[in-house]
Predict the 3D structure of the following.
Amino acid sequence: MLPKTQFYKPSFFTLHLQFIPSIFHFSTLSQAHETLSGQSLTITKQAFTSLLHSHSSHPNHLKQIHSLLLTTGLSVKNSLITQLLTSLCVLGDMSYARQLFDEMHKPRPFVWNTLIKGYFKNELPNEVASVYRQMHHIDVRPDPFTFPFVVKCCTELSELWVGVAIHAHVLKYGLEFIAMVRTELMVMYVKFGEMGSADYLLESMVEKDLVAWNALISAYAQNGHASRALQLFHQMVVGEIRPDSVTIVSAFSACAHLGCLEIGEEIYGLARKEGIDINVIVDNARLDMYVKCGSIDMARSLFENMHNRNVISWSTMIGGYAMNGESKKALELFSSMQNERVQPNYVTFLGVLSACTHAGLVKEGWYYFNYMVQSNKKDIKPRKEHYACMVDLLGRSGHLNEAYNFIKSMPIEPDLGVWGALLGACTIHHNVALGQHVADSLFELAPDIGSYHVLLSNMYAAAGRWHCVEKVRLKMKKKGAKKVVAYSSVEFNGQIHVLYSGDRLHPQATRIYKKLEQLFKHMKSMGYSPKTSSVLHDVDMEEKEATLNSHSEKLAIAFGLLNVRPELPIRVIKNLRICDDCHTFSKLASEITMREIIMRDKNRFHHFKDGFCSCNDFW
Ligand code: ZN
Ligand code: ZN
C-alpha cells in the first residue's frame, strides 16, 4: 500500500511559498517535516522539484516526498508523480514505481516510456513486454522513445518472433526511418544471427549516420561475427564516413577475436592518420588485440607507454601473460599492480588464477583464491568463473578428488563451466569412473550441448571403450546435440583464411595435402607416430590416421608454410582445444621448417619454436 497521510495532516501542515527556500537547507527530509509542521505553508511545483533533486538518493526519501504530495493535494499533478516515478526507477524500486504509475490518470506516452525504461534498466525484460502489451491493448500510441527498449528486451528474452512482431509495429506506426529505432532493430537481428535482415536495414537507411554504423559493427564484433564487423568497417571507410574512437574499439575487438594482427595494425595506422582520439579505452582495446594475437611483447611495450592505465589495462596484461603461458610474469605484474596501489577486480583475479592454472601452481592458486574469499570487497569475491578456474587448476594437476570435493563445497550452484573443467581433467588423466559421474551432473544441466558429449566420448575413446563411445554418439543423436565444427584460421595478405578439418574444397587443397605429406614423411623418419587415441570413432588404423592427418590445425600450418613470408611467424587460431597429436605435429613442424608457429586454441596460446612449446606440454 502507498503511504497515504502517515504523519502529515493537511489541517496543520499546509506549506506557504515564502518558507520554501528554507526547505533546501535541511539535511534530512524528516528535519524539514519537523520544522515545518505546525506552520501554515504553501508549496509550489518548482519547490517540490528542487526538494526531489536534493533528496533522491534513497527510495524512503522519495516515499516521504510522495506523502508530502498526497498531503498537499499536489499528487494529482501527473508531472510531479512522473518525476518521482523516474527517480524510483533510477533507484530500482520498481514495485513502488509501478504502484505510482497505476494510480495515475491517463499517463502520457512519456510516462509509459519511463516505466518501460525503468524495467529494462532493472533487468526485468518480461515486465517490459507486459507494459508494452498493456499499452498496445488500451490504444496508447507508442513513440520513437518507446521502441528502443522494447526491441532490446526482445533480444534479452531470446524471442525472435516477438522481435519480428515488434518490427511490424514499428512499420505500422511509421517509425522505421527513425535512426535510434532502426539501429536497435539492426542490433537485434545481429544478435539473433539474422544478418541479412540487419544488412538490409542498414542499406535501406536514407542517411547512414555514424551512430548506426558503430552500433552494427559493435554488434557484429560482440556476437561472434567478427569477419562481418571488419567487412562493414571497410565498407564504412571506403564510403568516406570518418570512424571515431567507438568504431576503432569495435574494429580492434573484431581483430582480437580473429587473431589478425596485420589488419589490426592497419586500423591503428588509419586511426592515427584520421587524428582519432586515442584514449584509454582505445589503448585497452589495442592491448587486448595484441594479447589475443599472441604478440605479448608488443602488448607489454604498449602497456609501458600508455599515458593512462586503469584496472582494465592491468587485468588485460596479466590475463595476456597467463594465456601465453608466461605465468611468472603475470604474477610479477600483479605484484607491481599492488605496489602501485591499483585496486584489482574480479577480472584481474581471473587472470591471476588462470596464470596459476596454466603453470600448475596449485599452492599459489589456493593462496589467491583464499585471498578473494576472505576479502570484504564485493568486487573481488569469487564468482563461478573463479571456481571453474580452481577446478581446472586442481584437475589438470591431477588432484581430481580434491577438485570434486571443492565443487561439492561450493557456496554457489556449480554451472556448466565448473563441471566441464572437471570432465576435461578426467579426460586428460583417464579417470573414466569420475568422468562418468561428472558427465551425469553436466548433462542434468545441459543435455544437448555437443562439446561435452564429445569430451566424454574422447575420454571413452582414449580408454578404448568403443561401445561407450557409440552409446554417447547415439545419445547425442537422440538429444539433437550438435558437434561444434572444428576449424582453424590463418591471416594472410590482409585476409582470414579458414580451413575446416578434412577440408578438400579450399582453393589450395592439393598443395596443402602435398606439403603435409612431405612433413609426415620427414617426421616419421624422426620417430613420430600418429597418436590415434585422439580419434573419436572405432575405425581401422588407416582411417584413424587419415582423420588425424587432416585436422584443421595441420592444414592451417601447411597453408601458412606455403604462403606466409618466412621471416614472419605463422599465426593459427583454432576454435577448439588442440589435440595431443596436433600438438606433437606442431612442435616437430617448427623444428623441421625452422618457423615459429603461434597457435591460439580454445584455452590458451601455444608458441611452437625449435621443437618445443611454451606450454611445456601442460594444457
Ligand atoms: Zn588435432
Ligand atoms: Zn602447447
Observations:
- The CA atoms of residues 191 and 555 lie 31 Å apart.
